[in-house]
Specification:
By secondary structure, this protein is mostly helical. The protein has 14 helices and no strands. Helix 1 packs across helix 10 and helix 12 packs antiparallel against helix 13. The longest helix is centred in the middle third of the chain and has 23 residues. It is globular and about 55 Å long.
């Protein structure tokens, strides 16, 4: 299949712009990377192994979850189940980007998804809701977040003790606040409001009464089901299908 079939072409200047757009939040990612580096060395990993995990896995919450099961003998199946449960939201995140990803060649498509995080997905989704097709934020923003996570891991692994409790400084709230601003900055149609309200209520209920980390999966699925069966009128999507890209 020829490359001309794929209409979305990533633009280097915009990738650089999105890199710097996500740079401020990446500074807080460094702090949590340091917390992971510290926790991983305390769990028995060497600094090199900790950094290697962050370089190749790049999944903060899942990496912390894996550490809870780490030991002299690691049970692979439980680790896989925990990691899948925590990252199950990526199934819906990737699906939500399909209208743009289908216009990118498969190699670039799956390369982009390796850098997909909550933060750059939220920025991309908000732009798409506002009629702008912006996969550059997945690449540029994802790269700076990955770099920050690796740098933070290295710092925590080699200089453990300097930032043992980032939650004490409120750093654990930064990503949540960022995602909230993305929600408030997007469309506020009845459909969108019901989706977010449903996801929020079910997430809270799951957090209260279900096992750890299940609230992430339950909230994402509940909101996704509402969005799946309550479709926008075609007229609202027409601008998005031919939305801006590099103009």
């Amino acid at each position: 299949m020829s490359g001309s079939y794929y209409s979305y072409q990533l633009q280097a200047p915009r990738v650089r712009t999105e890199f710097f757009r996500m740079l401020p939040i990446s500074l807080f990612v460094v702090a949590f990377g340091a917390a992971f580096g510290l926790a991983s060395t305390q769990a028995g990993l060497s600094p090199f192994e900790s950094i290697l995990m962050s370089v190749t896995v790049f999944a903060g919450a899942s990496q912390f979850g894996a550490l809870d099961l780490w030991g002299a003998e690691v049970s692979v199946i439980p680790v896989l189940v925990v990691v899948f449960a925590i990252n199950a939201r990526h199934l819906l995140m990737g699906a939500s980007l399909y209208p743009m990803l289908k216009d990118v060649s498969p190699g670039r498509r799956y390369g982009l998804l390796l850098l997909l995080t909550d933060a750059n997905w939220a920025a991309c989704a908000q732009d798409y809701q506002n009629g702008r097709r912006n996969l550059e934020v997945i690449l540029g923003g994802g790269f700076v977040l990955w770099l920050a996570w690796v740098i933070g891991t290295a710092f925590g692994a080699y200089f453990s003790g300097l930032l043992q409790n980032p939650e004490a400084y409120g750093l654990d709230m930064v990503l949540g606040c960022f995602l909230l601003t993305m929600v408030l900055g997007g469309k506020k149609t009845p459909r969108v409001m019901v989706v977010w309200l449903t996801a929020g209520v079910t997430s809270y209920a799951a957090w209260r009464w279900l096992p750890a980390n299940m609230h992430v999966v339950v909230g994402a699925l509940a909101g996704g089901v509402i969005g799946l069966f309550w479709l926008e009128p075609r007229s609202l999507n027409s601008a998005e299908e031919g939305g801006e890209h590099g103009h």
